[in-house]
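We now fix the convention by which a protein and its fold are recorded. These numbers are not coordinates but entries in a learned vocabulary of local backbone shapes. A record is reproduced here so that you can trace the correspondence yourselves:
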Amino acid sequence: MGNRIGCCIPFCRRTTGEPFKEWICARHWSAVPRSLRAEYAAAKRKANKIIARKPLHREWWKYPAGSADRLSALGMWRRLDRIWDRCKTAAIETAGGI
């Protein structure tokens, strides 16, 4: 039962063994509006394309402080994190009946 993590939704007992920091189970992910899921998927595809061209964007802290590449990589990750937070909030609110 070692390194399993639970769904982000309070009181959801589903878990996964995948190496995620946060995770939303399929039941709660389907409660996220389709437009928001599509926005997250598009941002993730764009991030993967950027990482394919510039692998160091995955490890942005290796860029010199204040460099254009570091700022670009940080912007990409922050954009993805903001959309993920919106997805998580929508799933929690839907599960809570809000």
In short: The two ends are 33 Å apart (CA to CA). The chain is about 55% helix and 5% strand. The chain has a mean pLDDT of 92.
